[in-house]
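NADH dehydrogenase [ubiquinone] 1 alpha subcomplex assembly factor 3
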Amino acid sequence: MHSPSTQLLRILRASITSFEGAIAQQPHLRRCPVSRPANPPFIVPILQQHRAISSSVALNGPESSNHGGNGRQPPLQPPRRAPPPQPRRRTELTTADLKPKSRYRGPPPPEDSDTNTSMRTDLGALDVFANVAAPSTAIDACLEDGFHLNNGVKITDGSGCLLVDGEVFAWKPWEAGKGAMVNEKGQWEVAEEAWGVLSLVWPKPDLLILGLGRTIRPISPETRRHINQLGIRIEIQDTRNAAAQFNLLATERGVREVAAALIPLGREG
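Predicted structure tokens:
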């Protein structure tokens, strides 16, 4: 890059000098006012209102701007709030309306302030058969040598009992066979003659509950087959549980649907 020549520098200096002299001869070009943007349209009314208030204060004095000329400011009024919306009334019941207020389901509790009725439940009130009369052939007690029934009948001669269709029969199945009810395989087995009442009764019960004494034993296939051929199902229990199950099922389903054959507790084999 070459440096400017001496002739070029002289021309530039002469032009600058002539331009400054022209400006000095014309004073209106010395100051150039800066143009300002016009006020926005939304500021003009505010400025006009402010100017009007300022001019009125200057003419009438500062007291004229006060309320009534007494120098007191008017009390500030709190802004009014809209009234809260009224709750809508429900016309239909929901699950929340039907929910019980307490967990207590029993009868009315005694007048005791210490009783917490919110958490107490009377289990006796949950018995759906509480008001149902027990059958007359229900077993009240199982003895070593017999049974006590609900109708007052007592069997105390060492016999068992056969409960069929609301009737009670003294039952000694061990006399129908060899005198024993347990075979060489340890299975409970009696002769077919011991079930003569079941073969004669009609309609036949749907279920036969066997109470085999203090313990439970499997019954022989021959005995099970004979009872099943009569169209009767078998349930095997010890004597106490068999009596309790008969009482429940006879109350629920009736004495015609359920039969029981019970051996005394003191009879072994």
